[in-house]
Write a structure and sequence with these properties.
This protein has 275 residues and is an alpha/beta fold. The chain is 35% helix and 7% strand. Strand 1, helix 2 and strand 2 form a beta-alpha-beta unit.
Length: 275
């Protein structure tokens, strides 16, 4: 019998017992609600599939890790998608408040650490800031990642028309074909490439806001989904799950945060973390 890893399928006693174990890890899935492209209309599910697969890899074997994968957080920072309609977005203050409530709850329940697996580009910067602030404030290791950016050489080797993940591209469309094929409008893949005017991107080394009607005009597609297949999607997910499983076991990622705001910290060691 396989070991359950999904929070929503566990009972309160199950979760209480899991949280009491050394190094208990909660995995929070971060996504968004928006129409991805003309090819499919669904919140990105690759983060969920990869996280659950990774959790199953680490709960079994000679040194099992206690893990619970929380249900996906469907709200995110998605104002750049508003021109396409069908989008619900929150601002940074609301997003951080939600994350803080989750962290506070996990600490109260007895969990030792949190891995946030993000499937939406608009959440990357907010998660980087919020996770570092909350880790120090709650003395709680928090790691945020986006599976598409892990194991880049292995991921790149799977691509055929694209060279790296973009948006509603070969990679994302392949994953959706693997896990929710009925949501992919394959007959619109050619149409998705008909974009005018040309996409706009900031020069290398600069950051500014562009809506996706500027970055991926007309269809929301950035990349070429026409070579997507379910077989590639399964391979992408396997690579991501393996990389996440390795991260879960990596002690460098899970050390206790340095208490930089502790009174007097500026008079203590500069040779590593203060204990």
């Amino acid at each position: 019998m396989s070991i359950e890893v999904e929070w929503a399928r566990m009972t309160a006693p199950d979760l209480r017992g899991l949280a009491a174990r050394k190094g208990a890890l909660a995995i929070r899935l971060a996504g968004a609600a928006w129409p991805a492209s003309a090819c499919y209309h669904r919140y990105r599910a690759s983060a969920s599939a990869a996280s659950i697969a990774a959790a199953r890899l680490v709960v079994e074997g000679p040194d099992p890790v206690p893990v619970a994968v929380l249900p996906g957080l469907w709200l995110g920072l998605s104002e750049h998608h508003l021109p396409f309609g069908g989008t619900i977005s929150v601002d940074y203050a609301a997003y951080r408040a939600i994350l803080e409530s989750i962290v506070r709850s996990l600490r109260a329940l007895g969990f030792a650490r949190l891995l946030i697996v993000n499937g939406h580009g608009g959440n990357i910067d907010p998660l980087a800031v919020a996770s570092r602030e909350l880790a120090v404030a709650y003395d709680f290791p928090i790691v945020a990642t986006a599976p598409w950016f892990l194991a880049p050489a292995k991921i790149a080797a799977i691509f055929e028309s694209d060279t790296a993940p973009k948006h509603a591209c070969e990679g994302e469309t392949s994953v959706m074909m693997a896990i929710a094929k009925d949501s992919v409008k394959a007959h619109k893949l050619d149409e998705a490439m008909q974009q005018a005017p040309a996409p706009v991107h900031a020069p290398a080394g600069f950051s500014r806001f562009y809506s996706f009607s500027e970055r991926a005009p007309v269809t929301g597609t950035w990349g070429d989904p026409r070579t997507a297949t379910a077989e590639k999607g399964a391979r992408f997910l396997a690579v991501q799950a393996e990389a996440l499983a390795e991260a879960i076991r990596d002690p460098v990622l899970w050390s206790r945060p340095d208490p930089v705001w502790r009174p007097g910290r500026g008079q203590q060691t500069t040779a590593g973390k203060a204990e």
